[in-house]
TrEMBL record:
<feature type="transmembrane region" description="Helical">
    <location>
        <begin position="119"/>
        <end position="138"/>
    </location>
</feature>
<protein>
    <recommendedName>
        <fullName>Transmembrane protein</fullName>
    </recommendedName>
</protein>
<feature type="transmembrane region" description="Helical">
    <location>
        <begin position="87"/>
        <end position="107"/>
    </location>
</feature>
<feature type="transmembrane region" description="Helical">
    <location>
        <begin position="55"/>
        <end position="75"/>
    </location>
</feature>
<keyword id="KW-0472">Membrane</keyword>
<keyword id="KW-0812">Transmembrane</keyword>
<keyword id="KW-1133">Transmembrane helix</keyword>
<feature type="transmembrane region" description="Helical">
    <location>
        <begin position="12"/>
        <end position="35"/>
    </location>
</feature>
Length: 156
């Protein structure tokens, strides 16, 4: 059961989803932007571009399940501790914005709006791992400080 702390299997599963989603999305963007190939009738998409997008789409669905899991299992109990709320809110807002922008990119966007939306989705997606790392590192730092204080109390 997940409370404030994630058991290792859940944590590593979520980290894996984050990494695969980030890696496939970044790979898709890199291939789309800088790896066009010369074809018989001009520039054509790189052969790996579509598979990268397929993997990214699959990871997006799994990430939505993961975010729902975090909202249902981790958020209510963590909110009561009143710790790391700012990074927690950021970590909740960013995936929601990615879901909305991903939906709009896939189903709605037209040319001018699409390009703006693409770069917004990319920027949020690139910043998300930094935010997650900050959230986790703050927790590790807090845990280490707690251990130091407990060891000082034991010496007394």
């Amino acid at each position: 059961m997940v409370t404030v702390y994630f058991p290792k299997p859940y944590r590593y599963g979520l980290y894996s989803l984050f990494f695969l989603s980030w890696f496939s999305g970044s790979g898709f963007f890199i291939l789309k932007t800088w790896f066009l190939q010369e074809g018989k009738y001009g520039l054509v998409k790189h052969a790996w571009q579509y598979p990268a997008l397929q993997v990214h789409g699959a990871m997006a669905f799994l990430m939505m399940i993961g975010v729902g899991f975090v909202i249902g299992a981790h958020l209510p109990k963590s909110w009561k501790t009143k710790q790391k709320r700012k990074t927690g809110i950021l970590l909740l807002t960013m995936p929601c914005l990615l879901i909305i922008s991903g939906y709009l990119l896939y189903y709605v966007a037209e040319d001018t709006f699409r390009q703006w939306l693409e770069y917004t989705h990319l920027a949020i997606g690139l910043v998300l791992p930094v935010s997650l790392s900050l959230h986790v590192l703050l927790k590790v730092k807090q845990k280490n400080e707690k251990r130091k204080n407990e060891s000082k109390l034991e010496k007394i």
